[in-house]
Design goal:
It contains 13 helices and twelve strands. The chain is mainly alpha-helical.
C-alpha cells in the first residue's frame, strides 16, 4: 500500500483485491492444457519420418531400429521409460496442486510454478539448436516440417519435453526450498534470530538450490546421454568422454542450464506477509484487476524465462565463436540423417546422409582441430 499526494491531499493507493473464489478458471485451464497436449500426441510421430536415411548402417538393432551403440545395460526401451517419467512426474504435480487449488477455490502457488516451468518449452528448440542437441527419433515428436519453431531443433522436438520441463524444474526447486527451510529453521534455533540466512533469504535460497540441484541436474543429463536419449553432437570443452557419442560438456551443464531451476526455486519463496515474488509483482501490473490468475502466471513465467535467456546467451557466445568443434562419434541414430551444419561429420568421414538443418548460420564456423 502506497501513499500519494493529489492537490495537496494525501490519498492511499491500495493494491488490487484478491481474485474471487472460483473453480471455473481451473476447469478452463485444465481443458486447454489437455486439449493442446492431446493435439500434440495425436499429430506426433515416432521414427525418423522426413529425415530418414534410406540406406542406414545397421551396427546394432535396438527395439527394431538401427543404432551405432548397444543400449545401456542391454535395456532397449529407454525412450519409453523417459517419456513415462516426464508424463508421469508432471501428472503427479498437476494432480496434487490442482486438487489443492480445487479445494481452496484459489490458484495454488505450486500450480502457477508448474505451468510456468512447462512454459520454458517455448525456448527448447532454440536451446537444442544452440547446443547441437539432437534427440532420439523414437520419442513421440512433432513431425519435421510441421512448424518453423520445431524445425529449428537438430532432429526433432519431443512432445514429452513439455511435461518434462514441469518435472525437471519444479521438483528440484521444491526439494531445494524444503532443504533451505530446514537449514534456516535449524540456524534460527541454534543461534537465535538474525542469522545470515534470515538476513539474506533469497541469496541463501539460491545457494542451497545450486548445491542441491547440481547432482540432480548433472545426473539426469548424464543418464540421458548414456542412454542415447539425446546427445551433444558438437560441443566446446571442457568435456567428459570427449569425441565419443556420450560426450558431455561442463559449461552448459552444470553451470548454465541450472540457472532456470534456481529461478524456479525463487517462486516458492514467501516473504513475512506470505506473498510470493511473482504474486507481489503481478499486483503492480494493470492487467491484474481483470486477469489476476493469468497475470500472475505470466509474471512467474517471465522470471524463469529471464534466467533461461541468460543460459541461452552463454550458449550463443560459445556457438557463435566457433568453440563447438568436438564431434560426438559415432552418430548414434543411423536411420536418421546426420545433423552436420558445419560439415565436420562430412570431413571426418562419418557414414550416413548429412543435413545442415534450419537456422544454419554462425559468426565463426567451428573447424576440426588438427
Amino acid at each position: 500500500m502506497a501513499t500519494t499526494s493529489v492537490a495537496g491531499v494525501d490519498s492511499v493507493q491500495r493494491e488490487p483485491a484478491e481474485p474471487p473464489e472460483s473453480r471455473k478458471w481451473l476447469v478452463v485451464l485444465f481443458i486447454a492444457f489437455a486439449s493442446l497436449m492431446t493435439l500434440l500426441i495425436v499429430t506426433g510421430e515416432t521414427g525418423p519420418g522426413a529425415l530418414r536415411d534410406s540406406n542406414p548402417t545397421a551396427t546394432h538393432v535396438v527395439d527394431g531400429y538401427p543404432r551405432a551403440n548397444p543400449p545401456l545395460l542391454g535395456f532397449e526401451y529407454w525412450p519409453q521409460l523417459w517419456q513415462a517419467i516426464g508424463f508421469g512426474g508432471a501428472a503427479i504435480l498437476l494432480i496434487v496442486f490442482g486438487m489443492k487449488s480445487w479445494r481452496a477455490r484459489r490458484m495454488h502457488n505450486g500450480l502457477v510454478v508448474t505451468f510456468a516451468a512447462g512454459g520454458m518449452m517455448a525456448f527448447d528448440p532454440l536451446y537444442n539448436w544452440l547446443g547441437y542437441f539432437p534427440t532420439d527419433p523414437r520419442f513421440l515428436h512433432i513431425p519435421h516440417g510441421a512448424t518453423p519453431w520445431s524445425d529449428l531443433a537438430p532432429t526433432f522436438e519431443p512432445v514429452f519435453f513439455w511435461p518434462l520441463y514441469m518435472l525437471w524444474l519444479t521438483a528440484p526447486a521444491l526439494l531445494a526450498h524444503w532443504v533451505w527451510t530446514k537449514l534456516r529453521d535449524r540456524a534460527r534455533r541454534r543461534k537465535g534470530p538474525g542469522t545470515w540466512m534470515q538476513r539474506h533469504p533469497l541469496l541463501s535460497l539460491l545457494l542451497v538450490c545450486k548445491l542441491v540441484t547440481l547432482p540432480l541436474d548433472w545426473g539426469g543429463f548424464r543418464l540421458g546421454i548414456l542412454t542415447d536419449a539425446f546427445i551433444f553432437s558438437q560441443a566446446p570443452g571442457p568435456l567428459v568422454s570427449a569425441g565419443h557419442t556420450s560426450q558431455m560438456q561442463l559449461l552448459w551443464e552444470p553451470i548454465l542450464f541450472p540457472l532456470t531451476i534456481m529461478a524456479t526455486s525463487l517462486l516458492f519463496y514467501r516473504d513475512s506477509e506470505g506473498r510470493t515474488l511473482h504474486g507481489r509483482a503481478a499486483r503492480k501490473v494493470r492487467t491484474f484487476v481483470r486477469f489476476p490468475r493469468l497475470t500472475e502466471f505470466v509474471v512467474a513465467w517471465s522470471i524463469i524465462a529471464l534466467s533461461y535467456v541468460i543460459c541461452l546467451s552463454g550458449m550463443a557466445v560459445l556457438r557463435f565463436t566457433g568453440q563447438a568443434d568436438e564431434l560426438a562419434r559415432p552418430w548414434p541414430y543411423q536411420d536418421t540423417q546426420v545433423y552436420d551444419p558445419d560439415g565436420l561429420y562430412q570431413q571426418s568421414g562419418e557414414p550416413g546422409l548429412k543435413r545442415t538443418g534450419s537456422g544454419d548460420f554462425d559468426l565463426i564456423r567451428p573447424v576440426i582441430p588438427k
